[in-house]
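Box 3.1. Reading complex inputs
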Amino acid sequence: MSKHSRLVLVFTSAFVFASFGVRAQQAGQENQENKEVPPPSNWKPAGEITPPAPTAGAEEKNDVPSPMFQYGQFKLDAHGRVQVMAGLVGDDAHSSNGDELSRDGFRVRRARLGVSGQIADSWKYEIELDLIDEDSGGNALMDAAITWRPCDHAWIKAGAGKLPFSRMLMVSSGDMQLVARAPWVGVEAATGTAMLDPGRQVGVTVGGKVSMFDYSAGVYNGSPGFSVGDLNDGLMYVVRLGTGMGEMGNSEADLERGGLRWRFGLDGYINQAPASEIRAAGADLGLKWQGASFYAEALWAKSTPATRPESIDSSLDESERWGMAAQAGYVLPFSFADIELACRFSIMDDNVHIDNEGDLWELAAGVNAYFYSGRVKVMLDYLLKEEMHGSALSNNAVLAMLQLRF
Amino acid sequence: MFVGAWFAAAGCNDGAPYSKAYRVINRTQLIGGSAALADLGDYILENDRIRIAMPQQGNSVGPGVFGGSLMDADVHRPQARFRNGNGRDGFGELFPIGNLTIPAICLGGDKDKIDDFCPQLPWGIEPSVTILCDGSTPCVLDPQKRENADYRDDGKFPTEEAAIVRVQGQAGNYLEALSLVSIANVKTNFRFRNDYILEPGSSAVRIRTLLFMTWPAGTPQAGAIRYPDGEVIPLPSLKKATAMFGLLLGSSYFPTELLDMEPGIAGGDFLFFGDRLNIFGEGIGFDIYKEIRNKFATGEDPFNSPIVSKFLGAVGENVSYAIASSDPEGRYLLPLFSGAVTAGFTHGVFCHTGPCPGTPEQCINVIDCNDVQAVYYERLFAVGDGDIASAAKAIYEAWGTPTGRINGHVLDRRTGEPVSGAKVFVYDIPKNMADCRLGGSAGEPYSLGPEGFAKTCLEQRHYMGAVNQLGCDRRATDMPQGAFDGTLPTGRYYMLAKKIYYSASRVVEVEIAEGKTAQLSLLLLPPGRVEYDIVDEQNRHVPAKLTLGQCFPDCSGRYEESCSLDDDCASRKCVDVPGAHGAMRCLVDNCSADRVCDLSKLRCISRKECRIDADCEPVERCLAEPGEDSRHCGCVPLFERQKALGEGSYAPGLGRYQYTVDGHGQLLIEPGAYDIWASRGFEYSVDKQQVALAPGQTALLNFRLNHEVRTPGWISGDFHVHGQNSYDADVKHRDRVAAFAGEGVELLSSSDHDYVTDFAPYVHEMGLEPWLTTQVGTELTSVELGHFLGFPFRYEEWRDGQRVQEQGSVDWTGKTPDTVFDELRALGEYDPADTVVVVAHPRDSFFGYFDQYGMSAYDPSQIKGTLFEWFPPFVQNPLGDPELFSGRFDALEIFNSKRFEMVRTPTAGEERAYNQARSVIELQVDKGAPPDLIERRQIDLDRRYIKEILRRTPAEQNAIWDADGSEGCDLISFCAKPDDCGSGEICDQDLYVCYTACTSDADCADSTCSDGRCESSLGPDDSPCTSQEGVIDDWFRLLDYGVVRTAMGNSDTHQLFTQTEAGCPHDFVRSSAAVPRAIDRLEVARNIKAGRVVASYGPFIEAWIDEAEIGQTRTPDPGQKTVALRVKVQSASWYDVDRVEIYRSGRLIHVLTGIGDELDPDSQVDVSGLRLPNTKVVNLEATFRDPVPDVDSWYVVIAMGLDGRDMSPVFSEHPYLKLQIGDILSRSFSSVPLPFDISGALIPRVFRVYPYAVTNPVFVDVDGNGSFDAPNPLPVWANGGKKLATSEFPLGSARIGRSPLAPAAGDLTWRLRQLRYFMGLFHRAAVYGP
């Protein structure tokens, strides 16, 4: 390691720990306040229309009232999270098949570090790096975008990040109720396909809200690799429409234990990929009420090859796949922490034309403990995976994860 | 949640084994993989362990020709990334054989095909492939049905859970020519029923074949079952090596153990493994071919003394296969073996009328075939996940063999880190020394232990003899931890680990107990590492090739006057001449003063004495010459890749090759001392270094390559290239592109077998546009009409929303040459008239157009017709009609691959001398010479004689040019005893050759009488050998008949290294492109059609007549007396050109060597560039004032280097003596007691790559009509015309128009003549396939 690298590392470490210390102290104070006055006093009552959250567009997660650094209108705040996983998995489990672990053992699942803030009024920025994750398609950079929000009815965002497609994908991994997303996400990462999970992209997104509806739409490269530019013949077009009542918050869990809130979304995309044109659509519904949360989503995608480079390893013609998930949780407040019970049933068919091991369902159940307003989270999940056709794989898993975030 | 739970219950999969069969309706159902061929409409048979695919009723798109074969196979891979047709199939094709026939599952009725394509016998069964049991309902076979009679007989019905695909059809021939075996009464009239049975939970499919005896074609009941009320009996398994001719021919033609045996029945499979698989024999290892060569070298023939193995295995990329008899006691016999075509037999019987006359043991494989309705036999085909053990496990399970497990790790001996990708080999512990090594004593018990086994047994047997093999981290999903795990039969074994580029581990003894698991770890020393940079004269990093090995050639030279001391020579080098019995001569070479060039090895050797190896350079050893006390440094290749360990076949001393696309790279190699050469094809220099590498050590090397040969106005192109889309090649697209860039070829034209491939995306992706451009083409690969190249094509994968099969390549089955030419042209990127159609390897037996149609090499207007024409009662192929021969092609390959034996027609004298010399070598077997020594001597002989064939003297050329083909070279008659020779002949008991007896010279027509025999009974030495046609001589003759077609030379590369490297040979084509990316494919196509091409194995030749270039016509001015023939020959400095031959209209007019012009002693031409040693790039630049010829003429220049440095090691020689199908059959037929020999004369086939190049003609138009007018009339076939000249039986005894059968009734001689010609066709069929 060079001297320069060591300096950067030391500086970065000091920066992170200092930040974490400040945040932890504040969080402890907030947590005490929360326990005294549930639900939070600053929470809007049910029925009031709020902007969609989370979104892949102009989310305001960084719009904190007390940024780490401020100079005039310029604000800077740092954020990060580390997820450390341990698990016991079946003999057939393998990361190349979409499983979280290949063998019993440990894994640093994510180590993210980012900054965000505003440059001037209405101009926001965000940058997030993943120090280890390969899910981004080889990008250490996960998010890098600039947003201009002149008013609530319209905003525009340019850069790299998540697309406004699929609520399950848009939720931050730090806010999930279960360790892993539905199995189709892992399967697509394992096979290098991008149908139900288009991943992060570079492009431009516009959005806003009109009355009780919100919208976002964007155009993207349609392929991973932020720095190489568009390698496709065409682009990817995504649109999402949503409506709902009440503020859902960023977390899947109803840590706020507020009144009834719900959100409903419809989304879809067309991706003019190199080998094919992929069309996808999805619908999702989320509910929260007094600590209980429910979420359901269905996605469908179809890939129609146009012309593609000759390859003898593949015989893919038209393929069509779908997935559904229903997830529920309930948060029990205890003095030492919020304890949540969560479960999810998900099902997918990776190709509707054939019955094979790609037709599977998964039942996931877990218990989570939130400390310091969720900045420390401990999760324990059991995943039961069942292949509906073909060979049955021994790929059930017990997964535990510790997450720290600031 | 409740809904979810309900879903869960409903969709629950209990993981129970299952089996099912279905037809492919969506390509996502396919298996997929590098060798996958199945498509929509084909059949899949799968269970929870494996998946296999069979083509539908129709023509196989693989190497087979019919449907119903086993075409794709893989383990069942439930992992997400292998689904949807992304499996790992690596298998070629398999179809059952009954004797030599196969099920003819084909479809006729295509309007583009000739009317009687795929005819059916009147009473024959309709060909079909059906799903008998699909696995969804209980599989219950009706025992009363005739087609289930075998199950009724032995009671081995499939279980109710089984899935079955059934194939039924009449017997047919893979090659039409094979039907000729019926001449010798081989049983060929069958009806096939073949069941593929897959039980749940099994990794092996049962292949169960039922053969009904049927009435032959031509009888009133043709195709009907002959004995419908007869018995259905099992075909006994073969338990030991059995002479296949004995089974097929019976006692009439073969000395069987029991007398009066009638022709019998042999059952097995044709196996087309393809090049993606490494084939393994239990008890042999991966070098089965070496086993065959050993047999051959020691006088045995593989057909009648076949290789015997318990099972045959094959390993591919994360997939493996095993095939065996279903009988645990049965053996797998391999009479014919190659990666491309292997025939395996597992069952067989002699037929005998009445009780068997032998002992019960002798009669195991004897039955009374009279009134037998049908026979049946069963094999097991298992699929594993990447090593032999995983595939063989299913075989052992089916056999009920007691087994145990072995597992462990292969680790780096220095670091303890896992070594992934190593192979673990399992050997039986020898019982005695005969089991240990060749020539060992069976009476001496083995007592050497594991260490002695490695030293004494393995090294001497080339590491052959493994009974099993386990792979590390073999599954595609395995993490690299060097782990191996497998099942072996119980017993004690020796095991060792080896990974390519690592030294082998020591041998360890293990015991496998039933139901137990043994564990061990094997340690490997790490390899050495080379990191390198390669730049050109402009300091640009360039695509290039690195070659590592030992004892590479590095000099050339010549002997001059006699001498006795160094001081007698200007060169100060007075040396012994090898083989000259002490004679000494001055040596002129390019070695340093203290070294001399060993002209036999072309390597500088030390003249200094040494005591130990350390006194020499790292790559040398201190050697003692036989009979001398002193020792000198010399080079002996210590390094040899072990094919038996699956490491590929390299010539001795060659360690490895590597291509780099950006001039950087690193590679691993076993620790040792090496020569390292960097190269970049024909036009660049090479850079050589030496390095000694210790385990784990890294050497940093820099190389510089200079572009020496100047070719402005020309580009280099290779138009015959195979890769992963060819069934018999396994070169990935990126590797193929890298190889061409590294060899400096500027235009890469794809030509996969019946497949259209586009390399352009890979060139783009790899950033190689500055060095290489591509075009699209194909090789139309008919089985029996010849092969044809077509280019440039448009590339089309999808049409009207449907995927285009094979990207639109031509389905040639049932089509005439004219039709396939038209269809090739229609695929053109430009106007069909601009599509180039090339006859590939025209004289390559079944794969050569000229051979197939019997085009006369002496009068091309005569098309003698194919085999099918001559034997209509036996072979019916209307495509063989001579009138279908078409001249509507644009070019022909005069060079193909490294096959110099097809370049020139040998003279009778050359042929005779070669065959006699070869016989002498083979007779050394009787004197106890080991196989390796015999093989080495045969290779040396081949190297020597091919030079004689390539070097054409004026007398030889005059003889061939004046010959009419009616006489000149008959075949040598070999004999084992005096009776074998004809009347008036005597058998030379030393040479086993028949000679004409004589008392004086007057008794000998063309030779002298010596020792009571005519020295030559073959006519004048210089006359052409009429049984071998060289394509250059064909091409000359075509020019003389006005059939002006472009001569080309292409690599036909199928591998990445050693056998056929990229661009060796290739063409120089006139082009206006200054850089590769500017190459205009249309311009190239038109220039090829115009003959503006030089075909080359290295040298670059330019030629002009006055101002006319190659391919152009010069019309002399009125009154002009002479023309200026200007010739320029260049070669890079690392190989030599020492001879230039200039032809005018078929006659040699100049022969230039280092001493001048042989035909013009007064010539003042500067020939210093042809003199050895020589590093001149311009070998010859001369102008000849030749008189204007009397008639229109053509001029062709040939340059060659035969005595200097050849193209090795950059372009290597074949690593071992090639046995071709004809060799095997010739030897096999020699075991048949015939009145005379029917085998063909042999020709050299293993040699180095010699610098050799040929220009296309420059024409001289004397009569001033603007074009070349040939002296002979244009054949009617030349431009689409029909009606041919007389067809003639090649051996002159039968002619069309007279029934071949009429004189043949009971005429054994006539039958044998036919067989002899049949053998001749096989003779040149490469054992490696097309």
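In summary: The two ends of chain B are 62 Å apart (CA to CA).
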